[in-house]
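Cont'd.
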Amino acid sequence: MSFYGLVDGSDASLKSYLNNLSGVDQVGAEARAAMLATRSIKTSSKRWAIDTAITMVDLTTLEGADTPGKVKALCTKAVRPDPTDSSVPSVGAVCVYNDMVSVARTHLDLIGGQHVPVAAVSTAFPSGRASMAVKIQDTQDAIDAGAAEIDMVIDRGAFLAGRYIDVFNEIVQIKQVCGDKAHLKVIFETGELVTYDNVRKASFLAMAAGADFIKTSTGKVAPAATPPVVLVMLEAVRDFYEMTNTRIGVKPAGGIRNTKDAIKQLVLVNETVGPDWLNPKLFRIGASALLNDLLMQRMKMDEGYYSSPQYVTMD
Amino acid sequence: MSFEYAPAPESRAVVSIKPKYGHFIGGKFVAGSKHFPTVNPATEEVLSQIALAGKAEVDAAVKAARKAYTTTWSKMSGKERGKYLYRIARIMQERAREFAVLETLDNGKPIRESRDTDIPLAAAHFFYHAGWADKLEYAGLGTSPKPLGVAGQIIPWNFPLLMLAWKVAPALATGNTVVLKPAESTPLTALLFAEVCQQAELPAGVVNIVTGDGSTGALIVNHPGIDKIAFTGSTEVGKIIARAVAPTKKSVTLELGGKAANIVFDDAPIDETVEGIVNGIFFNQGHVCCAGSRLLLQENVAEEVLHKLKNRMEKIRVGDPMDKNTDVGAINSKEQLAKITELAAAGDAEGAERWSPACTLPAKGFWFAPTIFTGVTQAHRIAREEIFGPVLSVLTFRTPQEAIEKANNTPFGLSAGIWSEKGSRTLWASQQLRAGVIWANTFNKFDPTSPFGGYKESGWGREGGRHGLSAYLKGVSHE
């Protein structure tokens, strides 16, 4: 493994790589995110943003109560979010637990959703508290069942204890399992890492270890994808691109429930890493409720008035 | 595909600008005799005709202020004065959108800044000083502090309403009455403020507003019926005022020019530092006396910071100030644009390297693209003279000591910025810098509780906070 020539895989080289990162000033990062939240996105640009956001949604269900019926309904919605309007694009992916991957993949293929990938949460999601053998098997199962994207969680305990090399090695091993069969998204659970310095550090660690995407949260811990956290991750991705010429994707997940929040995320992308990242290959939004709000706003733009939620399908 | 932001113009319908304005004297609007136009610098549209106050009008205003001082305002309890200030503050908040739109039309600054910075801060100054009005005995400025009398206040065009608030709020809280002259090119929000005084039923003559040019200002400065002069503006005019009041009994506070050093150490949080550099020099088109107009970069990070700064500057949105997404608006006047253009040309002539992002400037109006000059040394004019525009001079240094020497090597001393993640270095540097305001890991942050003012040629006295009260009270040292 070359790790882009940034580290050689040793604890010492990883420490030196992470120690060279500049710090993040909390007040400044929050002020920048707040300023970008004032951008006023109207008319044609709002329409473009809504459709772009729909293609970026990782439509998610991660509940103990998930059943094949629920997952199939989600898949149907993912392929044709608005059954009455064929101009609405499909979402970015369907995101489910490991044991629901085959249900989702089979159903998507059945209904003409071959183009919609299935993402599986992995490595003892959401806590990450399991042995490495279990995490590898978890990932392998999901890939065998047809997952094209793996959303793994990092070991936050190891990270907070300063055992960065353990976090790094886990990502490296899961990346090996993914090989060329699945894209790897690495979840930090930023609500548990707490500081922006930690978010920046985790971002650079994961990117060097082989992440294709870096992702804020599991959706099980609040706060999750706050604008300043996403800003710090986007800055890391931008800097990493300059260092390595490799574009890493970003996926905010958790807490993005309406169109306004989604558009704020797109503004952050546009003014931090730039328009190259404004597509589902490099930016995804992990959400469940968001999709319906995007659809309602889209209808409002077409028809000039807000419809009742009964005019969009619940799942 | 790209994410172009569609135009998002703020509505102008909220303001009604009269074709012609008079002065506000003794609680009433009185017609002027001569008039001059005020224009929207973004379009060169004439917004209104403004009265030019001569001796008669200034005399009438001072007389009204004296009468209000003697009969009403100096006799009123602090508690009652405070009620009026609270009332003014609340009305300013209620009419904030009107103020913001008017400020942007008359000044050229982006609506985002007038809406989110100027107007909320102006109201905050009235709220803050309302709280002091009945507590002056406990401000540590003597057991029974007394007002000075009539204050003559002359304010600049860069933050028209905010500078009015900085002047009027402390004067009124401490029991003084005022004759205020807004800048020639930006009188409209002061005239709207006069309406607010009427709406708040402020006793007649407590606030008088006369409009005009430098000749009106001179009449105020030299008026024998005035006890105190408060001026914000250029160092050049500040010196004329200092000479004029020297043989008189007048108190004076001056808030003048600056050439602030924004110092970036090699352990700075780079992304936020870049934001701070941009905010330091491009906020309000650089029309800021405390602007971070000299960027001092530690040489070992200079390349990285400049690279990121240029990338960031490519994202600055220059254009229609009324558009909610505009970051940098119009230069306030043709004269100011000429001054900026001349100094930038001096930068070219002296061998500094000019860079601006690609941006299309509107055909009409007064515009100057955000600009940085690299390869600047202490000997360049653009490192010494205040440009008062969106032009940043970039210098480098090798050691913290050298940074301090360069930062202090200026006749000015208004503000400075320090960027470092190391607390001990920040504290050490802030003790060495000869500047009235020092920001650490931020820039251009203002608050009514914090005193503001300069060292050396940047001015005399402080405005804001407890220190600012002393400038309007008898027998209190001004520092």
